[in-house]
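Notebook p. 47: complex prediction with adenosine monophosphate.
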Amino acid sequence: MQFDSFDLKPEIVKGIIACGYTTPTPIQEQTLPAALAGRDILGLAQTGTGKTAAFLLPILQRLQDGPRGHVRALIVAPTRELAEQINESAMELGRATKLRSVTVYGGVGKGGQLQQVRRGAEIVIACPGRLLDYLDSKEMQINKVEMLVLDEADQMFDMGFLPAIRRILKYMPGQRQTMFFSATMPQDIRVLANNILINPVTVQIAHQKPAETVTQTLYPVAKHLKPSLLLELMQRHDIGGRTLIFTRTKHGAKGLAQKLEKAGHSADALQGNLSQNRRREVMHNFRTGKVRVLVATDIAARGIDVADISHVINFDMPETPEAYVHRIGRTGRAEKTGMAFSFASRDEQDQVRAIEKLLGKQLEQHQLEGFDYSVPAPPKSAEPQRRPGSRPQSRPSARPGSGGANGKPRAPRSRAASSGANTFGLSPQRQANNNTNNANRAPRRTPSGNR
Ligand code: AMP
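Predicted complex, structure tokens below:
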């Protein structure tokens, strides 16, 4: 299928050509016919599938006709990064349409955003909190919105935005086209989707399995040894491409980036405490290759769309198996191979088990040959002090199977409890089989069906 089968307006075709898209991705193939016909859409797709253009093209096509100078399309997204990325795509795809788009999110002054809205932007891309501020204070109206997109609905739910979204909906006309995208579809999200979509067309793109081009390896390791294992692995692996490392807390991201810098890596941290300008700078440096290693929390990294990430490292295991799939989906894109390393300490075994359940297979476990797993933990007083009030940045999810809901510590896995001090999780047989440094092993290349 080609883009010309969708009968898009010439200005929009120009945008597609400018972006360098030649053929629609599977999510675009499935979404475009129904969305262009005005149908509601329930889309199950992760970042990386091309979902942004799947909802932007129908918006641009519809808005190209009709009145200008007021908000006609609203896109609600969980993070500023994602809002900015959607806006960049809207500007590129829509350049020839002369439609105007504006981003709305907190952490920056209100003046500039409101000025752009008042100048007559037709497309608003907003995070829920700041948008609701503007609606409550009547600084902005969305009562003429014809098209609504909720992007990454599951993440908005995890971040506690559901009540805000429900209130935002009250400011909008009931008569509208709604497109609802989510990487996962837990029960609460399904209920929300059922409430707001009318007779939707469901499109689904391999939402719960990582690309087969990603080689996944699990490194069981005691918590205190994670930083040294990481440095050793990075050195031996001679990681040359872009590397994205995930930590559980903002504080952890910052500290780890500093450690990596000290060890001579070009690294930076992306976390919620940064000013908007600083976040932009960090992202820009990572995109352009000035910084090679980015340490991020799930929330800060949500929606990061950077091509050619060669390695994803789960320094801390994610709270949910869905987050794992999302994290490692950043590598192995577009048929390229990628590697995902996960460091799992004894108290993260529940997460490992949940991931393996979702994947339907055990993760391959490895030990780094020659790495001293027997170094004891430093005495409590010598451990770095946790900053008062530092908490995980992502809210623990209460999804079934995710374990550790409500922030309660997890019980160790029985598999872990029965084995050695630092190599827990490895059966003697698997240890023997895997007791090689696979770091320099060429990644397996398998054809990908879903990117
Ligand atoms: P998304 O899932 O929307 O974040 O898109 C992931 C990446 O795919 C972005 O860099 C898009 O620019 C790119 N992309 C989207 N649609 C296409 C297409 N039809 N052909 C090639 N690349 C695309």
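Notes: The pocket of adenosine monophosphate is lined by residues 19, 21, 24-25, 28, 47-53, 305 (CB under 6 Å). The chain has two domains: 3-204, 214-370+417-440.
Next step: compare against the earlier run before touching the bench.
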